[in-house]
Amino acid sequence: MAENESNVINIEGKEYNPSDLTDQQKYLIAQVQDLQNKRQKAQFQLDQVAIAADSFMQKLLTSLSEEVVEAEVG
User: Fold this and answer.
1) How many domains does the chain have?
2) Distance between alpha carbon 40 and the CA centroid of its chain, in Å?
3) Is residue 14 domain-resident?
4) Interstrand relation of 14-16 and 2-3 (parallel, antiparallel or unpaired)
5) N or C: lower Cβ tally within 10 Å for the chain?
6) Which 3 state secondary structure label does DSSP give 1?
7) Is residue 64 part of a domain?
8) Is 1 inside a domain boundary?
9) Confidence of residue 3 (pLDDT cuts 50, 70, 90)
């Protein structure tokens, strides 16, 4: 679902003129658009958290392997 420059709303490949829609349909479109934006933002943040968690895990594993090497040498 997207809105283009000519102010026509495209939903699943079919175009709708906003002036032909009811107030409830316009409200539902606004809700869907807002939820799509929230979904994108949440996915963006989840990607950041996943990468940060992987980074910390890698640092932990590196630290633990360094301790093993020091213990073997010492």
Assistant:
1) 1
2) 3
3) no
4) unpaired
5) C
6) coil
7) yes
8) no
9) very low
